[in-house]
């Protein structure tokens, strides 16, 4: 019969016999202790087990002193201390390694899928594009030959199932045939602005510096601002674009929230969970969960069209759907 706080090897914790004993397994009950020197690494393994169960919100099973490890919770009784600690810590370590390996495998697979998608489109030369993935977030690096290809690569990556975010770090390296002087680019961009329909009487202005376009002016909606920006995609020689156009809505936004939610319900391409919109002044904040970046962008486009809205706040969560959920929809 074990007495309270006696060493499980049956001798005093300070005894040399205890230190020389080799304990390979033993039945335990509450408030029993084992000499810390009787099993190599026992304190370390018991400490790891304490940390595991503490993180899970369970009371720690072991109390540790310099010379003794004591069992203090009933649920651990009749479990060998060394075996329990080694098995639990070993399982946690294995699970952590497996999770890292699975994440790396998923990232590699996503990189391959996005790369295949970029190379599939004949409008894009993706031979110098490098795709990397961190979880479901994708980064595009390397170089392309035009501003259009840079924007197209990002749009294609955002359209891949499973992608939740895209960072575009692509450089534009113009070919000799696509190079244009700033004056030529400014004239081409001005002609495009003049040709756009339904523009305000005072059209936006464009300036060019080292191939970089800057837009200034005033329009009445965020949707019109985006339309003007997209009109310059196909001009050869552009290195980038900054859109500084201001939005001054003409209509009131009293019905903006209702009109936006009705537009979402009419869309055949959107499945939004927990949709919620908040309007404050000329700003609409959009909340909800969608299954892809394509749906995310489409939802923001609808918000830009809401009457009286000048700014859209993006609080949308992208959570990719499983194959079963896609088939169900």
Question: Can you describe this structure?
Answer:
- 37% of the residues lie in helices and 22% in strands.
- The protein is of the alpha/beta class.
- It is extended.
- The chain starts with 15 loop residues before the first helix and ends with a helix.
- 25% of the residues are buried.
Strand content: 15-25%
| Shape designation | extended
Helix fraction by DSSP (H/I, runs of at least 4): 25-40%
Structural class: alpha/beta
The total beta strand count reads 15
Average of the residue pLDDT scores: 79
The helix/strand series, from N terminus to C terminus, equals: HEHEEHEEHEEHEEEHEEHEEHEH
Q: What is the overall number of helices?
A: 9
Sheet bearing the most strands, described?
4 strands, mixed
Report low-confidence residues grouped into runs of 5 or more.
Answer: 1-31, 75-83
Distance between the termini: 65 Å
* Rg: 32 Å
Topology:
Layout: H1 16-20, E1 33-35, H2 42-55, E2 62-64, E3 68-71, H3 81-120, E4 129-134, E5 137-144, H4 147-158, E6 165-168, E7 171-172, H5 182-195, E8 205-209, E9 212-216, E10 218-219, H6 222-230, E11 240-243, E12 246-247, H7 256-266, E13 273-280, E14 283-290, H8 293-304, E15 311-318, H9 323-328
């Amino acid at each position: 019969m074990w007495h309270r706080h006696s060493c499980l090897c049956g001798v005093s914790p300070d005894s040399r016999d205890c230190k020389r004993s080799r304990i390979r397994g033993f039945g335990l009950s509450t408030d029993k202790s084992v000499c810390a020197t009787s099993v190599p690494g026992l304190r370390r393994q018991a400490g790891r087990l304490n940390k595991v169960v503490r993180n899970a919100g369970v009371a720690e099973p072991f109390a540790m002193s310099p010379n003794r490890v004591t069992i203090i919770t009933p649920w651990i009784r009749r479990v060998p201390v060394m075996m329990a600690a080694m098995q639990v810590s070993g399982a946690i370590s294995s699970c952590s390694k497996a999770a890292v390996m699975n994440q790396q495998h998923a990232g590699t697979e996503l990189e391959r899928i996005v790369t295949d998608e970029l190379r599939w489109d004949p409008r894009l030369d993706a031979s110098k594009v490098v795709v990397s993935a961190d979880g479901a977030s994708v980064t595009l690096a390397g170089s392309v030959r035009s501003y259009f290809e840079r924007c197209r690569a990002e749009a294609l990556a955002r359209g891949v199932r499973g992608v939740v975010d895209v960072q575009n770090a692509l450089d534009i390296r113009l070919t000799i045939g696509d190079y244009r002087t700033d004056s030529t680019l400014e004239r081409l961009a001005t002609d495009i602005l003049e040709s756009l329909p339904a523009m305000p009487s005072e059209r936006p202005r464009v300036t060019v510096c080292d191939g970089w376009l800057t837009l200034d002016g005033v329009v009445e909606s965020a949707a019109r601002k985006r339309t003007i920006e997209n009109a310059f995609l196909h001009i050869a020689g552009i290195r980038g674009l900054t859109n500084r156009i201001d939005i001054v809505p003409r209509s009131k936004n009293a019905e903006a929230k209702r009109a936006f939610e009705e537009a979402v319900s009419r869309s055949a391409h959107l499945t939004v969970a927990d949709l919620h919109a908040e309007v404050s002044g000329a700003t609409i904040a959009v909340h909800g969960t969608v299954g892809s970046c394509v749906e995310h962008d489409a939802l923001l486009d609808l918000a830009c069209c809401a009457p009286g809205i000048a700014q859209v706040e993006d609080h949308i969560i992208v959570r990719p759907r499983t194959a079963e959920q896609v088939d169900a929809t």
